[in-house]
Amino acid sequence: MGVAIWIGAIVTGIVCAAVSQQLTDEFKAWTPWLVQRLLNRAVRRLPESLRARFEEEWTSHIDEVPGHFGKLVEAAGFIGASKKFPASFEGERHSHSSPSQKIPQQDYVYPAYRLYYRLYRAQHRIPVMSIDASLRLHRLETLLSAFANGGRALTTPERQLFESCLIDLYNNRSSPLCPIYAEQLRKSVARLMALDPDEPI
Amino acid sequence: MGDEPRITGPTLKVLAALLSSPRDELSGAEIGRAAKLASGTLYPILLRLEGAGWLASRWETEDPSELGRPRRRFYRVTALGAKKAKAAVKDMQSAFGRLSWA
């Protein structure tokens, strides 16, 4: 019985090794074709004037990436890149824009607001969007206060969120509400940093 | 030359990768590795910064058939780009204070 199990295990191992080797070979053989397909697709989405340049540039980029899987991932990334090319080329590209992209950025991704909105949604699950700026500000103050008093420890994602928020604030610094948000944010960070990270919410 | 590019975290990473490199110019793949950015994020930023005159790019001059690989396109920070990047970081720090956890 014991010998049969051993033989079975050895045979299974040999079969698995052969199959996985075959699959690996297949993957390696198909990768260049797949990469080329993804690259072509990404290039087709670009403005006419940029296609030749990026076809060559991205081909060399792929060439610099080691490993078949890495090449595939990078090539898939070019599809994403082709969707995010600067707005100045937007008119030349086939438009895939959603209606929300037509809303002025100053309002709809207002930096501090976005931060509070995300924190608030995470804690209370109540939408706080409003087109009324004063109402929005009032809600944000409430949110900020609730968050700052919550005793939450600053985790790495939260820090990253604050950092990205500060960068966004910088980009929208011409807005009259920006200094108010910036000051609130700074105070909240200071209060959060002073809190005991182990204190329960 | 286009509009001023928006400063974002990935934009700063790209500029930092180029400014901190011992070489004057880097290819897109090298910038991606140094800045730890995926190609989907990297190239729109490179093109935007180039459009604003913060970066300049050129094809390598060697013959691809001699190199045995496709020719690369190299990016470098222009004098304007270096000046603007430093000014942006300085503005950010003076407006909002230095981040203690950065």
Description:
The complex is a heterodimer of chains A (201) and B (102). In chain A, 71% of the residues lie in helices and 0% in strands. Chain A is built from 8 helices and no strands. The radius of gyration of chain A is 26 Å and the shape is elongated. In chain A, helix 5 (111-124) runs antiparallel to helix 7 (156-171). Mean pLDDT of chain A is 65; it is low at 87-111, 123-129, 148-154 and 195-201. Chain A is mostly helical and 201 residues long. Chain A has 2 domains: 2-89; 105-194, no CATH class. With 102 residues, chain B is mainly alpha-helical. Chain B has a single domain, classed as Arc Repressor Mutant, subunit A (Orthogonal Bundle), CATH 1.10.10. Helix content of chain B is 54%, strand content 12%. Chain B is built from 5 helices and 3 strands. Chain B has a 3-stranded antiparallel sheet with strand order 1-3-2. In chain B, helix 2 (28-35) crosses helix 3. The A-B interface holds A 50, 53-54, 56-61, 63-65, 73-74, 76-81, 84-86, 88-89, 154, 159, 162-164, 166-171, 173, 182, 185-186, 193 and B 2-3, 6-9, 12, 27-30, 32, 38-44, 47-48, 51, 69-73, 88, 91-92, 95-97, 99-102.
Keywords:
heterodimer; A: 201 residues; mainly alpha; 2 domains; elongated; B: 102 residues; Arc Repressor Mutant, subunit A; three-stranded antiparallel beta sheet; disordered C terminus
Quick description:
The complex is a heterodimer of chains A (201) and B (102). Chain A has two domains: 88 residues; 90 residues, no CATH class. Chain A contains eight helices and no strands.
Radius of gyration from the alpha-carbon trace of chain A, in angstroms: 26 Å
Listing every helix as H and every strand as E from the N terminus to the C terminus, the arrangement of chain A reads HHHHHHHH
Strand order of the largest sheet of chain B: 1-3-2
Q: Low-confidence parts of chain A, pLDDT < 50 over ≥5 residues?
A: 87-111, 123-129, 148-154, 195-201
Q: On the 0-100 scale, what is the average pLDDT of chain A?
A: 65
Order of helices and strands of chain B: HEHHEHEH
Uncertain parts of chain B:
97-102
CATH domain fold name of chain B: Arc Repressor Mutant, subunit A
Please provide the count of β strands of chain B: 3
| Estimated helix fraction of chain B | 40-55%
